[in-house]
Amino acid sequence: MVREIEGMGYDHLWITDSSLHARDAFVYLTLAARESERLRLGTNCTHPHTRHPAVTANALASVNEVSGGRAILGVGAGDSPVEELGKPLAKLSEVRSMLDFARRLYTGERFDYSGPHFALHNGQLRYGLDGVSPPKIYMTASGPKMLELAGAVADGVIVHCGVFPEGLEFATSHVRRGAESAGRNFADIDFAW
């Protein structure tokens, strides 16, 4: 199926990271990496509460290494699969922390982190960073605050506001607002629907 998708000219393949509702996203991303040459491969989306963010960042760095630098970490607040695990939907601050956390790991930085939901002590990714570009980080968003955060800090946004004109205008206006507030160029942010 991955070869067929790539042959049809698609640019991205998104795999759902949905705890008990789908098979393991990182196993499938690895298989997709082996069966494709140019597809960008990402999670749509993973969450701060389904596994430790360092473990998630490491899994995606592994996919990035196997794929030759084509991996994307897609992060969002979660949905019913997160609640099934007894966890709440992630707060805006937790999603932002996960993005910052992953970005620091992808630079090879060694650091400590202590937050309300996870910690890291003298942690550092020890492989998967040489010879490939670091993974891109996208946010999956539908509400105004998450869309604005995506515009402020993410490389791209996966929009869940529908594909009707009013939904698209709503999404782009909030991403633009977030980008402008952070001094970023709106045109540099990738969009996926």
Report strand order across the widest sheet. Answer: 1-2-3-6-7-8
**Mean pLDDT score, rounded?**
92
Q: Measured on Cα atoms, how large is the radius of gyration?
A: 16 Å
Distance N to C terminus:
21 Å
Structural class call reads: alpha/beta
Number of strands: 8
Extract low-pLDDT stretches. Answer: none
The number of helices is: 7
Main β sheet profile: 6 strands, parallel
SSE string? HEHEHEHHEEEHEHE
Strand residue percentage: 15-25%
Helix content: 25-40%
Principal-axis shape equals: globular
Structure explained in plain terms:
The chain is of the alpha/beta class. Helix content is 40%, strand content 18%. The chain is built from seven helices and eight strands, in the order αβαβαβααβββαβαβ. It has helices at 2-7, 25-34, 53-66, 80-84, 92-106, 144-153, 165-181; strands at residues 12-15, 40-43, 71-75, 111-114, 119-123, 136-141, 156-159, 190-192. The strands form two sheets. A six-stranded parallel β-sheet has the order 1-2-3-6-7-8. α6 (144-153) crosses α7 (165-181). The longest helix has 17 residues, at 165-181. The radius of gyration is 16 Å and the shape is globular. The protein starts with a helix and ends with a strand. The model has no long low-confidence stretch (mean pLDDT 92).
